[in-house]
Amino acid sequence: MGSGQRYTTADLSESGRFGSGSQDVVYSAGGTSLATATAGSTELFQVFNAASASITSHSTASGPSDSMIDTGTLHYSADGTLLYAIARDGYDAELVTATTQTVAKSRLTASVSSPAKYGQAAKLQIATGRAHSKVTLVVTSDGRSQTVSRTTTAAGKASIPITSAYNSDVTITDVGDLRHATKTLTRSFKVPAKLSIAPTGFYSSRGGIRHYHSIAAVHVDFRDWPQRQMALQLALQIRINGQWLTTDAGTYTTTSDGRGAIILKSGNKGRLYRVVLKFAGDSFNRKAPTVTSTSFIVD
Hints:
Elements: E1 2-7, E2 14-22, E3 24-27, E4 33-37, E5 45-49, E6 55-58, E7 68-69, E8 75-76, E9 82-89, E10 92-99, E11 109-113, E12 122-127, E13 134-141, E14 144-151, E15 157-162, E16 168-174, E17 183-189, E18 194-200, E19 204-206, E20 209-212, E21 219-225, E22 231-240, E23 243-253, E24 259-263, E25 272-279, E26 288-292, E27 296-298
Parallel strand pairs: 20-27
Antiparallel strand pairs: 1-2, 3-4, 4-5, 5-6, 7-9, 8-9, 9-10, 11-12, 12-15, 13-14, 13-16, 16-17, 18-21, 19-20, 21-24, 22-23, 22-25, 25-26, 25-27
């Protein structure tokens, strides 16, 4: 592969040079343009003005990314508006097509809104400006990726819900066509975590208050979603003179499936208690809504 060169037929002197790293080169029937084919490129075909060597068109219809163009198969269509070639990917061969006309830039735009609650879907809004155009999405979260394809409406738009348990990156590609270039954008959204907390093992529940016979019997279970290990902030509060005051606080790391529990070792009988649970957020999930346990008392 090397640069393309043009020679005059009278004396075979060089009349043009076109650097392209090409696998195949062909002139149009009238000699006004020069087309080249290059493997492993998002612009497999390029068309040059034969006089000025300026690029007048480039194709996004590249076929397999590692395809090889069979030398001698690159040709203009009869009307000069299309290019054809045989591309090989290993033992497989296919006909690839490109335009010799101007390729318009993609007008792809994309925005995404993060879910307000755990379990809700993020909302991705896409516009290409072209009716029924194809877009691909690669959603990456927790080190895993999933690829899906969608087609825009007649108005060139698409509204796509994306459900994920974790903060995610979305790579959106306007696939393009013979007359429209590809374009890729990346957008991100964050997924809030979810927490639950509840006293268990009480002997009675009256007036919305859990009752225990002893301090040692107080057991408060909690868990997080997505079910994974999280560092949570715990606060044990006591009701004094009509106000909740924190009597003890600390950090608690849940198990790998998102579970945890505390058991009281000391406390005052006849006083209302509650536990407040918080998660500040990390690289996997954003901040969770604060949750507060049902009040409990040791009779």
